[in-house]
Specification:
- The chain is α/β, with parallel strands linked by helices.
- The protein has helices at 13-24, 31-41, 44-55, 61-73, 89-101, 116-125, 164-188, 200-208, and strands spanning 3-6, 27-30, 80-83, 108-113, 126-129, 135-137, 156-157, 191-195.
- It has a domain at 3-26 and 79-116 and 167-208: 3-Layer(aba) Sandwich (Rossmann fold), CATH 3.40.50.
- The protein is built from eight helices and eight strands, in the order βαβαααβαβαβββαβα.
- Bound molecules: adenosine-5'-diphosphate (ADP) (2 copies) and zinc ion (ZN).
- One adenosine-5'-diphosphate (ADP) is lined by residues 9, 13, 31-32, 35, 52-53, 56-59, 64, 84-87, 91, 161, 170.
């Protein structure tokens, strides 16, 4: 079954995706990760996306949609999780067309619900591995050796856009452009709201209990 994991910045989309990849062998399609990878490699896509990502703004729809379509093209039948896409109503509409064209479908749209105060503490304490993308938190999930990834030994750092001034802009972008996507999927059916608080295993069980 293919999934959309939907939620504000810091809701736990990346964390839950990693569990789904590890345990259910699903394929994670994280548009944020794809942009960061392109930015690291300084590809043409990365150069176009950088000014938006660094400022906490959404990357223009046509760039994101083209990038996702390229990934869908290479899936080879593996079940996938869309993590961080779609983030605007036009992206959701474009996705519907892309899926139809490739005879793919989404089984569930999972909304991860987390109160705003907790989002702020999750985002400001988030740390990520620059090499493998593993996600940590200074309090709830610290790396065993500070600054070093448990998984691959890579360097663990704070994302540039996880600084407080940029977090504020990202949450505004969510309220303005992304929250309306919820109603889009509520009307379409197949969406479920999941409590995203409590430990990550509890959240994972709640997702699994939706037939995932
Ligand atoms: P998103 O991909 O939705 O932005 P992440 O999965 O990167 O969110 O999580 C944001 C931060 O919150 C990370 O530092 C992560 O370790 C932490 N986190 C994720 N899930 C939980 C949870 N259930 N409880 C506490 N902290 C969490
Ligand atoms: P978060 O942890 O806030 O959910 P992501 O890693 O998903 O962050 O995204 C980081 C940044 O990448 C976003 O602030 C935005 O600039 C860009 N981005 C990711 N996905 C999209 C998308 N679907 N549409 C537009 N911009 C996106
Ligand atoms: Zn790593």
């Amino acid at each position: 079954m293919n999934l959309i994991l939907f939620g504000p910045p810091g809701a736990g989309k990346g964390t839950q995706s990693a569990l789904l990849v590890e345990r259910l062998k699903m394929r994670q399609i994280s548009t944020g990760d794809l942009f960061r990878e392109a930015m690291n490699k300084q590809t043409a896509l990365g150069k176009r996306a950088k000014e938006f990502v660094d400022a906490g703004k959404l990357v223009p729809d046509e760039i994101v949609i083209g990038m996702v379509d390229e990934v869908l093209e290479k899936l080879n039948g593996q079940s996938f999780i869309l993590d961080g896409f779609p983030r605007t109503v036009p992206q959701a509409e474009a996705l519907a067309a892309l899926l139809l064209r490739r005879s793919l479908s989404i089984g569930r749209v999972v909304f991860l619900e987390v109160p705003r105060v907790e989002l702020l503490s999750r985002l400001s304490g988030r740390r990520v591995c620059t090499k493998c993308g593993a996600v940590y938190h200074v309090e709830s999930k610290p790396a065993k050796i500070q600054g070093v990834c448990d998984v691959c030994g890579g360097e663990v750092v704070q994302r540039k856009d996880d600084r407080e001034s940029v977090i504020r802009i990202r949450l505004e972008e969510y309220d303005q452009s992304t929250a309306p996507v919820k109603d889009f999927y509520k009307k379409a059916g197949r969406s479920v709201e999941i409590d995203g608080t409590g430990d990550t295993e509890a959240v994972f069980s709640r997702i699994r209990s939706q037939g995932v």
